Amino acid sequence: MRTAAVGGLFAKYLAKPGAESVSVIGTGPIGRNQLNAILLAVPTIRRVYVYDLVPERSERFAADKGAEFPELEFHVSSTARECIEAGDIISTATVTAPEDAYIEYEWLRPGAVVINTSANDTKMETFQGAAACLSHSREKPGNNLRADAARCYQEGILPSEKLVHISEVITGKQPARLNPDDVIISLPMGIAIMDMINAQRVYERARQLGIGRTLPLWEEVPWV
Fold this sequence. Notes:
Radius of gyration: 19 Å
CATH class: Alpha Beta
Strand order of the largest sheet: 3-2-1-4-5-8-6-7
Largest sheet: 8 strands, parallel
Order of helices and strands: HEHEHEHEEHEHEHEH
């Protein structure tokens, strides 16, 4: 849920005004929760398109979410292209090898935003065609990118001026898009500090209850 929540945040600030459709690629736990986050962040959504490599999973996803959100239309797509071409917001949550990148720039509708939660889905030419690439890491440009975008940056296909930090958009220092038809790629990565906070709470609660056991990090100091 904490990974999916960041995708919803990006959708809230990057989706074009009046966005009505979401394309979900990958129907696992992150895909399911990210759809929920997007629907919460963009209340104008009316249609959801779904694609998974296993058709039965797409059907199950559409049935489950259709029951959860009966006011929306759910459509199962037969190909990734068919699904992507229908979406104002494209949510990817897959495991894709670099050589299997599949999102073509020509498939994206004017004004579309890709919530690229997985890596290697987007082709290099698509990064090149996009108006901007959004992330939420404060590391130096190029170090905060997922594998597909990092390759584009290293090869000069994705210049620094296209890299925008989401906080600049949220605080109004920079517009999400200069043109309504701009295509935007975003790279949400979850918020790891939430894991640390929750782990600390679990630890403190266990201490209070006197449960659990102490585990050694090592039996002997390894650097002596």
